[in-house]
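Predict structure. Chain length: 385.
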Amino acid sequence: MLKTLMPFVFFCFAINNLTAQDLGNHIGLNFIRPDVNRSGYYDFNHNTKWLLKQYSKLDVKWNRVAFSWVDIQTEKDKFNWKTYDEIVDYCYQKDIKIVATLGGHFDDPKVPAWAGTNLTDVLENHPDHLANFVKALVKRYAGKIDYWEILNEPINQHFDLSTENYVDKILKPCAEIIRSLDKSAHILACDFGRLPKKNREYFWQNSRDYVDIYNMHLYIMWGKFRDIASADLEIEKITKFRHEVIAQGLQDKPFWITEIGWWGTRNYQMLKDTGRNEVKRPWTGKEISTSEIHLREDSLRSVWLKDLFPKAVKIDGCGNIFLWCAMDEYEGGFNETTLYHSSMLQMYHTKDEKHPLFSLWGIFSGDKKWKKSAYSLREIIRTGK
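Prediction complete.
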C-alpha cells in the first residue's frame, strides 16, 4: 500500500526547493475590474496610480489586468487607451509582468453596442470586429505584454457561448493573431472550470496546439461563512486539476491559477449565519470598512495566504498564482457616509437603484488602507513564508 501511495505523494508535492525569491516570483495580484457599469470601474480609472505604487511596496512581480473591449473600443474607430497605457507603462518600467485578459470580466453590456448584441452575435455576423480589436491591442503592447489570457470566465458572462465557438472562433483565431504579431507571446486559456456549457472533452482535444499554459480559478466554500484558515481544500482541488492535465497527455505544459480568493464579507448571507439581522440593510462606507465581520475575515485570510502559497507552488506543474484582488470595489468610489448595498444583488441580476454597490475582495480597503492580508502577502513575497 505504501509503495502505491508514494508516487502520488511525490506528484502532489514535488519538492522544488524554492528559495524566498523563487516563491515571490510566482505570486501575482489581480488589479481591479475595469468593467463598464460595475463597481470596480471608478477606482480602475481614478486610483490607478495609487494602486500601482502599492504593487511596488508589496514587491509583487505579476499583475493580472482585464482589457475590457467595451471600455477600450467605445466606437468602431475610437479607442480609449489612457488608463491601460498608465498600467502597462508603469509595470514595464518596474519590471512587473502583466497577464492580459482579453475582453474584460463582467461588462454591461457584454460587448460594445456597436459590435453586436452579444458575443455569439459578433462571432456569427461580425468576427472581424473582435479580430480587429485583438490586433489593435496586441500591436499596441507587443514587447511589453507577453502573456495573453483568452477570456475570463465565459460561462459566467457569455451565457450564449458554446465550448465549440470558444475554441474554434475565439481561442484559435486570437492565438494565431497574437503569435503572428509577437513571437514571444504565451497563450493562456480561460478558466477551465468555467468553460462555456462545459464541453470539456472538445476543449481538451481541440485546444492543445493553441494553449501554452492551462488555467484555473479557485474559490472554496463559495457563499459560506468560512472559518477554516487552512489551505488544504485548495491544495486538494489544485492537485486534482493537475491530474486532469496529465490524463490528457499534457503533463509537459504548466498550469496557472489566475484567480484564487477568500470568499469575503460581500456576501450578506454570512451576516445571517452569524445571527445578525442586517442582511438587507445598506451600510455606510465607514460601517463596511470597520465591520467586525470584515476585520475577522481579513485576519483569517492573512493566515490562509501563508498556508496557501508555499504549498501550492510546490505542486508539480503549478506556475504562477494570482490573488483576487487588489482593492475593495465601491461603485462611484469610497465615501464614509454613502450608503452601499452588496454587489451580490448585481451577481443575481437585480439592483437596488437607490444605493451603489460594494465588493470586499481586496487586500486594500476602499479608503486606501492596507488590510492585515496585504502585510501578509508582502511578507510571503519577501521571506518565502
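Summary: The domain at 17-267+300-325+369-383 is CATH 3.20.20.80 (TIM Barrel).
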